[in-house]
Design goal:
Blueprint (H helix, E strand, L loop, with lengths): L5 E2 L2 H9 L5 E7 L6 E7 L4 E8 L3 H16 L8 E7 L5 E7 L10 H14 L17 E3 L2 E3 L7 H16 L6 H12 L12 E3 L8 E3 L5 E3 L5 E3 L1 H8 L7 H10 L6 H20 L4 H10 L1
Parallel strand pairs: 1-5
Antiparallel strand pairs: 2-3, 3-4, 4-6, 5-6, 7-8, 9-12, 10-11
Helix pairs in contact: 3-7, 4-8, 6-8, 8-9
């Protein structure tokens, strides 16, 4: 994985990256995220930089994001914004930051969705041995799914990894939402996860939070990936996530399957993969997501 430069202040970062004496000409707030604040920084001389910021204590949000972006970029299959650096600024009451290449709004190229699908399928086929040192699935560091920590303890089995590192932590955090009968169903679901999930033909690097909001049109008019919650797993978990909040156009799925056909029974497994994300939303945002969670638990 590529290394990311760490800086002790925003001024230090800008001067190191763009030359001594570099100053910010203007700052504009960019809307969109629930967790971090985002800004466009226009430097004297006209260059623009994208900056995310959070409290100083939450620097790990950005170091983890940089690991994921570097992993995806390292596959040389699909673009991500270039990482300029991470760092902190100020002492008590200071902030942490992530600096990225600024993406200008561009019109989409012809065949945007088909090309994106093929790039994603190729990313899912890149060998992952360098990302997981003590197993096949997981990652050699933990990261975040939204604002919640995502455990990436390495495992030899995909089904065991998904039970132990994905579903179990979320169910434990959400236990107060469930009645006695549902808790019994949850125990049964976890005990029999091998009856539902299957081991993949090969491990894949996953974006990990692949909904439409984390796919942008890059400076080349093609699909670029942002805000990963990356780890090594079963490629169909990424595909399932694309279908959770509205889905991508049908041509995307057709083009993806031309390169990487989905294993039989995917439609049933899709709900289990998306149960993880619905539980995460339940734990972050509250009981508006509870009906969907209960529906899957009771049906499965």
């Amino acid at each position: 994985m590529n290394t990311t430069q760490h800086f002790t202040s925003l001024t230090n970062a800008l001067c190191s990256l763009f030359g001594e004496g570099t100053k910010i000409k203007s700052t504009s707030r960019i809307s969109g995220g629930d967790i971090n604040e985002a800004y466009g920084l226009t430097l004297e001389g006209g260059k623009s930089v994208f900056m995310k910021s959070n409290t100083k204590e939450n620097l790990s949000f950005f170091t983890a994001e940089a690991v994921g972006l570097n992993a995806i970029s390292g596959t040389k299959t699909i673009n991500t914004p270039h990482i300029l650096g991470v760092g902190t600024d100020g002492d008590r009451g200071g902030y942490s930051f992530l600096l990225l290449e600024f993406i200008s709004a561009k019109s989409r190229n012809a065949n945007y969705w088909e090309d994106f699908a093929r790039q994603l399928a190729n990313m899912h086929r890149v060998p992952t041995a360098g990302l997981v040192l003590n197993g096949k699935y997981g990652l050699n560091c933990d990261n975040y799914i939204g604002r919640r920590r995502q455990v990436n303890t390495e495992h030899e089995s995909w089904t065991v990894f998904f039970r132990d590192c994905r579903l179990e932590p979320q169910f434990k955090a959400a236990a107060r939402y469930f009645e006695k009968d549902d808790l019994k169903r949850i125990v049964s679901l976890l005990d029999h996860i091998d009856d539902i999930l299957v081991e993949p033909e090969y491990p894949s690097l996953l974006h990990g939070d692949l909904w439409a909001g984390n796919v942008i049109t890059g400076n080349d008019g093609r699909a670029w990936l942002i805000d990963p919650a990356a780890y090594v797993g079963h490629a169909e978990a990424d595909i399932a996530m694309t279908e959770l909040f509205g889905g991508f156009p049908p041509v995307f799925y057709d083009a993806y399957k031309e390169i990487t056909p989905l294993q039989p029974g995917y439609e049933r497994r899709r709900d289990i993969y998306n149960l993880y994300h619905l539980l995460n939303h339940l734990n972050m945002f509250g009981r508006m997501y509870l009906p969907d969670v209960k529906r899957i638990v009771r049906r499965i």
